[in-house]
Amino acid sequence: MVIGDSLNDLSMFAVAGYRVAMGNAAEEVKQQADVITVTNDEDGVAVALEQLYKCTLKF
To answer: Could you give the residue ranges of the DSSP H alpha helices within the chain?
Structure first.
């Protein structure tokens, strides 16, 4: 699983098994994501990891 928000993250997305985009991510990043979490200001990484821990993300 990778989490990204910027165009420089697309190379990481290309090889990842599961891609999470931040809510404030560039549109191109969101289009490549498997799921979009909330924004950086809303603790999107923590939210995504918590959902993964609780097995609520769909892999």
So the answer is: 10-15, 27-32, 44-53
pTM: 0.86
Picking from 3, 2, 9, 50, the residue whose alpha carbon sits closest to that of residue 22 is: 3
The pLDDT of 8-17, averaged and rounded, is: 97
Helix (H, G, I), strand (E, B) or coil at 52: helix
Q: What secondary structure letter does DSSP report for 6? A: S
- CB contact at 8 A, 22 and 44: yes
Which tokens is 51 given?
């959902």
d(CA 7, CA 47): 22
Please enumerate in sequence order all residues whose Cβ is within 8 A of that of 14, keeping only pairs 6 or more positions apart, or say none.
none
